[in-house]
């Protein structure tokens, strides 16, 4: 038996987003090829969409993880030939990250492997309903991104 909890609206909203994130990540990880994890795909997707030649620090900041966590992820991706980490030509102590052709292929294959799940979701949530949710979610993302430190 559960009692009704009168949580604030925005807490309930963030709670739902968190649960959706957990469920969607678990579903995506089931179909990711070659043992990729969502964290690996996310870095490949970021580099493919927004361009590479990023520093590990800027990637850590973008993903809100520690430099150590990003270094670990990049090491795993580099060991698989999906990214290349090179010395920064301007700052010899720094590094720059580049997605490889194999990394782009893995990213695109990951999206293709997700297609059956997206097809099922499209049956349950018509395009019009999904499209109606996007403006609010984008506004929320932009606000949270600008408010972070």
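-> sequence recovered:
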């Amino acid at each position: 038996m559960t009692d009704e909890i009168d949580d604030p609206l925005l807490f309930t909203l963030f709670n739902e987003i968190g649960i959706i994130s957990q469920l969607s990540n678990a579903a995506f990880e089931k179909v990711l090829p070659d043992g990729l994890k969502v964290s690996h795909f996310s870095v490949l997707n970021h580099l493919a969409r927004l361009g590479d030649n990023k520093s590990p620090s800027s990637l850590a900041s973008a993903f809100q993880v520690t430099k150590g966590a990003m270094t670990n992820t990049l090491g795993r991706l580099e060991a698989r030939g999906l990214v290349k980490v090179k010395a920064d030509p301007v700052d010899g102590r720094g590094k720059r990250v580049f997605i490889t052709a194999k990394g782009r292929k893995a990213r695109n294959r990951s999206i293709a492997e997700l297609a059956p799940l997206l097809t099922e979701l499209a049956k349950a949530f018509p395009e019009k309903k999904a499209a109606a949710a996007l403006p609010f979610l984008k506004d929320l993302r932009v606000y949270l991104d600008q408010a972070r430190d």
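Strands lie at 83-87, 95-99.
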